[in-house]
Design goal:
- By secondary structure, the protein is of the alpha+beta class.
- The protein has 3 domains: 7-124, Orthogonal Bundle (Butyryl-Coa Dehydrogenase, subunit A, domain 1), CATH 1.10.540; 130-240, Beta Barrel (Butyryl-CoA Dehydrogenase, subunit A, domain 2); 248-390, Butyryl-CoA Dehydrogenase, subunit A, domain 3, CATH 1.20.140.10.
- The protein has 11 helices and 8 strands.
- Strands 1, 2, 3, 4, 5, 6, 7 and 8 form an 8-stranded mixed beta sheet that branches.
- β2 (148-151) and β3 form a beta hairpin.
- α8 runs antiparallel to α9 (324-349).
- The two termini are 32 Å apart.
Length: 397
């Protein structure tokens, strides 16, 4: 029997990840991170560096021609990219997580996914699931989309308004969450090519951190796509809403991204501590008990987050029985610890830490975005709490 997608595997030659160059990629991203933070332009140089190292498709399944990197590998990769430039890391994460989802459950039409992989072999091919809407907010809190996909003679016509479309200006495909206009409506994901007529990107991403992530609003006005660009769909109803427990493992790589920011902040803290020699002290502040204790606290917080994220990710990859709520909870704890570590570094440096002349100020701003990813902390805790109160086990969800 021919294995699924055998033909696809044979004709797709994806870039081979160059893991030995990962530190070099981190350094390359760090070199331009400040520039892109100031301009808020799409970080094309950084994305190109990630693609050239073969890392954008690292999570493509092995039988589809990819490396098949699991959750632990995704965590380590995004921690390294986040240490260099978290805006680039977040854009890359959306693509990595999309391929990882396809690796777990083959829901893309084979021909369409083959096209995506063929494009990925030639150039950076960025994907992102755009789900948030102005009226609805995040689907993690429940509700159904106002965005509509209408049947046409050749496919679908997509109309709607989405928010927080990370990497909007560089996306090859918007994976648009929409409802159909069929007699029995469905809710699904539609792959809309980024260069389609009728797409308006509103450059309104003016956030505190991750300024180069370009998470702008996008308006789709009768955007026509072929019938084969319906990626997945389900009947309208409660089952169509986001399952916050099911996306627990996805939360670990995103948390690892901000762990990378924490490590970058730690690195600058150490540099400052050894270079700062007050005249009244006559030696580096790194030699004082105050800075030594703070350095210890920062390391404990970051190392604890790292052990939690990477350890749980490795258990998931081994096939251990890890309840999804554990992964969701690990993200909550890791985010808290990374935030506390960066705040500790900032507090010790005082005014120099708040200066735009050094990267710690940017790291502090960037790490604030850790808590905004869906499901946000309150929703995550409620989801975990309800599952725990019901005595739900990981095997049941």
């Amino acid at each position: 029997m021919t294995p699924p997608h055998a033909a696809l595997t044979a004709r797709t030659e994806l870039p081979v990840p160059r893991w030995e160059s990962l530190r070099e990629v981190t350094s390359t991203l760090a070199d331009t991170a400040g520039e892109y933070d100031r301009s808020a332009d799409f970080p094309a140089k950084g994305i190109a560096a990630v693609h050239e190292a073969g890392l954008l498709t690292a999570s493509v399944a092995t039988d589809l021609g990819g490396p098949g990197v699991g959750v632990a590998g995704q965590c380590r990769l995004l921690a390294a990219l986040g240490e260099g430039d978290p805006s680039v890391a977040l854009i890359a994460a959306m693509t990595l997580l999309s391929h990882a989802k396809q690796a777990r459950a083959r829901f893309w039409p084979a021909e369409l996914y083959a096209t995506v992989l063929a494009e990925s072999a030639r150039r950076p091919t960025l994907l992102n699931a755009v789900r948030v809407e102005p009226e609805l907010g995040s689907p993690a809190r429940g509700g159904l989309p106002a965005t509509v996909a209408r049947r046409t003679a050749t496919g679908w016509s997509v109309s709607g308004h989405k928010r927080f479309a990370t990497g909007a200006e560089g996306l090859s495909y918007f994976l648009v969450w929409a409802r159909t206009d069929e007699p029995a409506p469905r809710v699904g994901t539609f792959a809309v090519p980024g260069d389609s007529p009728g797409i308006e990107i509103r450059r309104n991403w003016h956030q505190l951190g991750l300024r180069a992530s370009g998470s702008h609003d996008v308006v789709f006005s009768d955007v026509h796509i072929p019938a084969g660009h319906l990626v997945e769909a389900t009947e309208l109803g409660a089952a169509a809403e986001q399952d916050n427990l099911a996306i627990g493992p996805t939360a670990l790589p995103l948390a690892a991204l901000y762990l990378g920011v924490g490590r970058a902040a730690q690195r600058y803290f150490h540099r400052f501590a050894w270079e700062r020699v007050p005249a009244n002290l006559g030696r580096p502040v790194a030699t004082t008990d105050r800075f030594g204790q703070a350095a210890g606290e920062i390391e404990v917080l970051l190392a604890g987050a790292e052990e939690l994220l990477f350890g749980l990710a490795e258990r998931i990859d081994r096939g251990d029985d890890v309840p999804p709520r554990r992964a969701l909870g690990a993200r909550v704890l890791a985010d808290r610890q990374v935030l506390a570590a960066v705040q500790t570094a900032l507090r010790l440096l005082g005014n120099p830490g708040l200066s735009q002349d050094n990267p710690l100020e940017r790291h502090f701003r960037d790490v604030q975005s850790a808590a905004v990813h869906a499901p946000q902390e309150d929703t995550a805790l409620l989801t975990i709490g309800r599952a725990t109160l019901r005595g739900v086990t990981g095997s049941e969800h």
